[in-house]
Amino acid sequence: MLSETGWEKLLPVCDGAMLDLKAWGSECHQQLTGRDNQQIKRSICLLAERGKLAELRLLVIPGQVDYLQHIEELAAFIKGLGDVPVRLNAFHAHGVYGEAQSWASATPEDVEPLADALKVRGVGRLIFPALYL
């Protein structure tokens, strides 16, 4: 993930960026990615402030992500970004390595509770998965 200095160098030649927030809590994010999520959250905010956050993406991984456990904080964070579309991506194990190969693919039934919880809290620009595998 780029630092603020890195983004500042890139932004003049960038139309926009799509960033993934793999989990709300730093511990869960660390378990999924090997890194905490403080830098990605800072990058998301920076891009939103500059009008360059084209899309925020949330990856729904059944039994692995913590979005619903932190829905109030997550929704407030998203609403604070302004009018940014939020893409709900459905996890599938195609092309992944390691432990994640054994994780269940996300179904509409996995995505809908998150979508509903975000909508109820005023997050309206949701994009749903085009494909479930």
UniProtKB/TrEMBL annotation:
The protein, known as: Activating enzyme
Instruction: Extract the InterPro entries matched here.
Output: Aldolase_TIM, Organic_radical-activating, rSAM_sf
Which GO-annotated molecular functions does the record name?
A: 4 iron, 4 sulfur cluster binding; metal ion binding
Keywords, sorted A to Z: 4Fe-4S, Iron, Iron-sulfur, Metal-binding, S-adenosyl-L-methionine
UniProt keyword Electron transport present: no
Lineage, top-rank taxon, reads: Bacteria
What organism does the record attribute this protein to? Escherichia coli
What cofactor does this chain's UniProt record say it requires? [4Fe-4S] cluster
